[in-house]
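Researcher: Re-running this chain for the archive, since the previous output was lost when a drive failed. Same request as before.
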Amino acid sequence: METQSGTKPLWLTFLRWSARIIAILIIIFSLFMFIGESIGGRSANASPLQTRDYIILSLWALYIIGLIIGLWREGLGGLISLVFMAIHIIILQMERVNSVIFFVMLLPSILYLLSWHFQRRWAPQQLN
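Model: Regenerated structure tokens:
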């Protein structure tokens, strides 16, 4: 595809914005879940959080921080979010929890990294 948007090819712009839009949707969804859980309170028969729960919630928070960083710096944000979501998935797999849905959460991380990679490969060609 030779069509260009500015100085970058159109597909590279599409890749970058796809990563950003998916990341923003995940961030908003997570924010709504956090607000809902905060407002809802705990039911009488809910068990207290265990160490494992705090670890998983911390990994999720670091994943979200990675997605937010990725809005400005795709390489760094993609790496942070990919690493912490991968650790999150590994922990869930070790406990035999069905974590297939969390593999979808890797999509913006992978798109961030692809965008960063192709952005770097494209930049030297602009100088010629």
